[in-house]
Amino acid sequence: QVQLVESGGGLVQAGGSLRLSCSAPPIIFTIYDMGWYRQAPGKQRELVAAIASGGSTNYADSVKGRFTISRDNAKNTVNLQMNSLKPEDTAVYYCNARRDYPVEINYWGQGTQVTVSS
After folding, report:
1. What is the pLDDT of residue 36?
2. What is the C-alpha separation between 38 and 114, in angstroms, rounded?
3. Residue 92's pLDDT is what?
4. What is the pLDDT of residues 66-81, one digit of tens each?
5. In this predicted structure, what is the pLDDT of residue 1?
6. For 58, how many CA atoms within 13 A lie in the half-sphere containing its CB?
7. In angstroms, how far is CA 101 from the centroid of its own chain?
8. Cα torsion for 87, 89, 92, 97, to the nearest 10°?
9. Alpha-carbon Rg of the chain, whole angstroms?
10. How far apart are CA 69 and CA 85, in angstroms?
């Protein structure tokens, strides 16, 4: 059973910052691409940001310039620094570990609530 353990959610005012962290087993962290998704009430889960095992990143257009994803290889942790938060960022945020070859495999964290008040 692969466990991704998330931390760092909470309540913040618009314009504030939060930092999410997700720890993974070393073998998963080393070879899987890591990412953060979010799901707001009544909406589909969407990709927020991802970082490949080699370090390349991609972001949803809605968070570019405000969120930064990074890997801490010493701690087998992926972090999501969220600045200039908006009420529309309110959602449950999920950590994801993914590989596409030879077959697609996804692991998910339990989710952490982020609430941005206006």
Report:
1. 98
2. 9
3. 98
4. 999 999 999 999 999 9
5. 83
6. 7
7. 21
8. -170
9. 14
10. 15
The one-letter amino acid at 70: S
Low-confidence ranges of the chain (pLDDT < 50): none
Q: In the beta sheet, which residues pair with residue 94?
A: 37
Contacts of 5 (CB under 8 A, 6+ apart): 22, 23, 24, 109
- The answer to whether 83 and 114 have CB atoms below 8 angstroms apart is no
C-alpha distances in angstroms, 84 versus 9, 54, 80?
Answer: 15, 28, 13
C-alpha 35/C-alpha 98 separation (Å) is 8
**Residue 71, amino acid:** R
Q: Which 3-state string (H, E, C) describes 56-92?
A: CEEECHHHCCCEEEEEECCCCEEEEEECCCCHHHCEE
